[in-house]
Known about the structure:
Blueprint: H1 2-7, H2 10-19, H3 23-28, H4 36-43, H5 46-56, H6 60-63, H7 73-79, H8 83-95, H9 99-103, H10 115-121, H11 125-132, H12 138-145, H13 154-160
Amino acid sequence: MVEAGCSGNIDFLHDAIRGDGTILQKLHSLGTTNTPLHLASMFGHAEFVIEYISLSSISAYQLSQLNQDGYSPLHLASTNDHLEIVQFLLEFGKHKSALEELYAAKEVTVHQESVLHLVVKHHQQEVLVFLMDQKLGLSVQNLLNRGDREGNTIMHLATAEKQL
């Protein structure tokens, strides 16, 4: 399944589920590890992400599950400028009433970085604009004002990197 997530191999995903209908739930119960969803989000395999989520009946908690490095699928897609996946994860979250969980100020990496910290740090302006346009009210305000482990807000990071 790891290789399927890395390569975006949807056929292998279907074969694995035919062999064991509970395999995706088992993968998510392993704890802080890269799931195929993390890997597909990181490598930009949007079709795989969509199919994986539709086949797995993934919960809001599992959607925002952090890997061993403290990154959720949303963090990984945002960091790597995979806008289609970011949009899908957020839209899916809305339908699952999980958007606040995905976007909550507590949803940070081990370095206390929010998804906004990551997109600024990795110069992903298009993703940042999309995230800011989601009109998430107080959640966005909390993320804008939240400092990372060193106390830097996204404005500090943008200023330090001379990002307009």
